Amino acid sequence: MKNIRIIPRLDIKGPNLVKGIHLEGLRVLGTPEGFARHYYENGADELVYFDVVASLYNRNSLHDIITKTAREIFIPLTVGGGIRTIDDIKDVLRAGADKVALNTAALNNENIITEASRKFGSSTILVSIEAIRQPDGRYLAYTDNGREYTGKEVLAWARRAEELGAGEIMLTSVDMEGTGAGYDIELTKMVSESLSIPVIACGGAGSSEDIKDVIFNGKADAVSMASILHYECINNRSRFVDNSVEGNIEFLKSGKVFSKIKPVGLSEIKKYLHSNGVNCRETNQRIKS
Fold it and tell me: Domains in the chain, start-ordered, CATH in brackets?
């Protein structure tokens, strides 16, 4: 089996790390830098930052956070949200990102995928697809955190993105995202088996078993997760909790988690995967500077 990458996803609103369900109802969890540093030290293969309110301002506002993170973390960093033009891509890469995730911009202008992959390299260009299952069983692509209908069928769009030069697909099931009910295996398998570029499964992890399931049965090349890791940090490391942050922090102060989510750390996830025959990079804790 190929090596599987384990990728924490950090959704960011302003200066805060946030988390919701179905990409909505965002709750503040703290500041992202501490979480990112912890995930790096404990074996994350990559990190993904998404500016989840970028569509409101038509721009990505993560430059300061990217720069701070890039100074301390030496694994690939992907950034998405509000990236509309080649200049936007250039700015984010200059700030310290290694890859960019395109969603709305790519759907509105397919040529940006080709132009960007030629200018920066296909390995730098990831296409993010937010998928929602329809009553008839089809999966359609959406934008703006699953709110804006595009009419694009997911598999056809994923294939087209590969043809245009995308180096990777991040496939998020909006239906499962934040629920802890497991990944959409059917969706992930459908796309993974139809492409030659890597597919990152995202949305629904509630346990280590869910991660194993999407690797073996969904054929994912990499797995991204958020709540399962964030809540483990909050439960066990109070230094990540900053009660001075603004926004909806009632959930954070309550100490509750969703009943379907079993918080677990990266090292425990990788040990579990190794014991079940999944090849992933060994988790050797990185020395804190």
Answer: 5-275 (3.20.20.70)
